[in-house]
Design a protein that fits this description.
This protein is an alpha/beta fold and 280 residues long. The chain has nine helices and nine strands. The longest helix has 29 residues.
Length: 280
C-alpha cells in the first residue's frame, strides 16, 4: 500500500503539471480562453505543494476546503462547457475530473499515515534506549541525555517541506527551550550529509542525528516503509522514512508528551508542548 502511495504522489503531480502545460499550449494555439481557465484546476494542486516549499508552512488543515471548493467550481464550469460543445471540450472535462478525483485521493488517502502501535510511546512510559549517529557517524546513545529533559523530533527528511518548516518553527523557540532546560534532538533516517546540511542551515544548538536504515524508528514503531515519494531515491534518499513524531521526556527518560499524528500535514504547534514543559 505504501508503495502505491509513493507512486501516486509523484505520478499525480507529474500528471497535473503536464496537463496544465498542455491546456496552456492549446490556449496559445487556439486563443480559446476556455482552455486557459481550465488549466487553473490543474494548477491548484501544484500551487498548494509549491506554497509548502516557498512559505515554510509547518502544517495545514485536514481538509484544505478553500482549494477543494475552488476545484469543485471549476469542475462545474467544465461540465457546463462540455455539455454546450462536447465535440470540442470533452477532453477538457475528462482532464478536470481526473485532477479533482486525484485531489480527493490526496486528501483522504495519501495524507493519512499508517496506524501505529500506540503501546510503546505512551505518556508515563519510559522511552526505550535508542542509539543514533552524529554527522561523523559516531554513535550517540540516549544515555548521553540522562538527567535532562529532551525534545525528540523524528522528521522524514530535508525533502519534506512540512518537516523543514516544523524544524524552522521549533528553532525559533530555542531560547525558550534552553530556558526550560530542554535539549532538542532531531532525528531522520536520511543520509548523514543531509542532516549536516540542515543543521548548518538553521545554526541552532540542537542535535541533528541520523537513524541509519531506521533501526531506532523500527524499535519504537515509527518506521515508515516506502514512505518517500517515488523518485527521491535519485537524490540519495531511501525509499523508507519515519512517521513524523514529537516526543518529550523528563530527566528520568519518562515520556511526558507525545504527538503521533495520523496525517502528515497535521503537526503540533510549539505552544502545545511548551505549555506542557512550563507546567512541570
Amino acid at each position: 500500500m505504501n508503495k502505491l502511495k509513493a507512486f501516486f504522489i509523484s505520478g499525480y503531480l507529474t500528471y497535473v503539471a503536464v496537463i496544465a502545460t498542455l491546456n496552456i499550449m492549446t490556449f496559445s494555439d487556439t486563443a480559446d480562453i476556455t482552455w486557459l481557465v481550465s488549466s487553473l484546476i490543474h494548477l491548484f494542486p501544484l500551487g498548494f505543494i509549491g506554497k509548502l516549499f516557498l512559505t515554510h508552512t509547518p502544517r495545514t488543515s485536514r481538509q484544505i476546503n478553500f482549494i477543494t471548493t475552488g476545484m469543485i467550481g471549476l469542475v462545474i464550469v467544465s461540465t457546463m462547457v462540455m455539455k454546450q460543445s462536447p465535440d470540442h471540450y470533452t477532453l477538457l472535462f475528462v482532464y478536470a475530473i481526473i485532477t479533482f478525483i486525484g485531489w480527493l485521493i490526496y486528501l483522504k488517502w495519501y495524507s493519512q499515515l499508517p496506524l501505529r502501535n500506540q503501546d510503546i510511546l505512551k505518556v508515563g512510559n519510559t522511552l526505550p534506549e535508542l542509539i543514533f549517529e552524529d554527522s561523523e557517524k559516531s554513535p550517540v546513545s540516549m544515555s548521553t541525555f540522562s538527567g535532562i529533559k529532551v525534545l525528540y523530533l523524528f522528521y522524514r527528511g530535508n525533502w519534506c517541506p512540512l518537516c523543514t518548516a516544523q524544524i524552522k518553527e521549533i528553532s525559533e523557540q530555542y531560547r525558550e527551550l534552553d530556558k526550560l532546560g530542554v535539549k532538542t534532538v532531531l532525528i531522520s533516517p536520511q543520509p548523514h550529509k543531509y542532516s549536516a546540511n540542515i543543521a548548518k542551515k538553521f545554526d541552532v544548538p540542537f542535535l541533528f542525528l541520523t537513524d541509519p536504515k531506521g533501526k531506532a524508528a523500527k524499535s519504537i514503531g515509527l518506521f515508515h516503509q516506502n514512505g518517500t515519494p517515488l523518485g527521491m531515491e535519485l537524490l540519495g534518499y531511501s525509499s523508507d522514512t519515519v512517521l513524523p513524531t514529537v516526543i518529550i521526556t523528563d530527566e528520568k527518560g519518562k515520556i511526558i508528551f507525545v504527538d503521533q499524528t495520523d496525517n502528515y500535514r497535521v503537526r503540533p504547534e510549539p505552544a502545545t508542548f511548551l505549555k506542557v514543559l512550563r507546567n512541570l
